[in-house]
Design brief:
Blueprint (H helix, E strand, L loop, with lengths): L2 H6 L13 H4 L2 H17 L4 H16 L4 H26 L5 E5 L2 E4 H27 L2 H10 L4 H30 L9 H32 L16 H24 L3
Antiparallel strand pairs: 1-2
Amino acid sequence: MRFTDIIQEVDFERLVVGSDSLIHRLDARVKLLGAFALIFGVIFMQCPTTPLIIFFSATLISFAIKIPARTYLKRLVLLPFSAAAVVLVVVIFTYGGKHQVASFFGLPVFEESLSFAVLLFTRIIASISILSVFVATTPVSETMEAMLWFKVPKVMVDLAVMMLRYVHLLSQETVRMYRAQASRCGFSKNIGYKQKLRNLSTIAGSLILRALKRGERVYVAMLSRGYTIDSHIIEHEPLTAKNAFSCVAVIAVTVGLVIVDHIGTGL
């Protein structure tokens, strides 16, 4: 994949995919609470089997609501799955233990380190699969509204909204600058890597300056329209009894999974 293709993938407006399923239509507050509850539940699980069940369940749900398999695998494998694999390898050889079960190029592998590495690996892929389903079925705007309803500080939400909005704009600006530099043979095969790094650093420096200037202009424009930290732009609808029951059900299922997991491990 080329550099410009990677940069152009940073488009948070295209994250929602799949059909108009029941999960798509579910209240964002329920999905946000459910995602965090499940992730916290995964953190407290001690048996790799339960996170694996959650991972496969999330994968089946993704295919059932018609999220394209290529999109799901790309979001899961491209970075998160690679990071989980790195954690798996590092923990196996660094965690230590008392009962050695194997040796790899002179490096001992202990039973305790192997068990803990597998547990961490399953926790990571389960958490990422939960987030992948949430992101693919919940628009960014609805997520921010749900965060405000849960009393997340408004400053944090405003910053998150602006970051998500302008990351895509700046990524497009980066692509234009990169292509302009490439059209001037800035990344030709005839020049060395040192010069290519200098050209990339020039693009990065110019991008930072443009981002600062654009941020100042946006802030002044917001002030001129009467924006203050106490501005209320969103009107929240009350949480219906059905959605409240769904929240309680998700939390109960998560607690049940954690209890079953701990019973299975004898804790």
